Amino acid sequence: MVEVRCETCGIYISLDSSTVKLKNALHKPTECPSCRNSRVAREIELTEMLFRGEEEETQILPIREARKQHVQALF
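Structure (tokenized):
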């Protein structure tokens, strides 16, 4: 187990060293479970909006702004 920093919120989490190596090799962010769950939920919602035919830009911008505010609040 290795202590790594969540690239979204900055907290330190314990991950298996092989998981960290794989994420680095795939150029994927290292995320804590909370940030990962939030990201996946946003991606699912955006995908559902795409298939429903809704205008996605009106929804993407508030999500991006909320993420910025969340990250800034942590620091």
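The two ends are 26 Å apart (CA to CA). The helical segments are 17-25, 33-52, 57-74.
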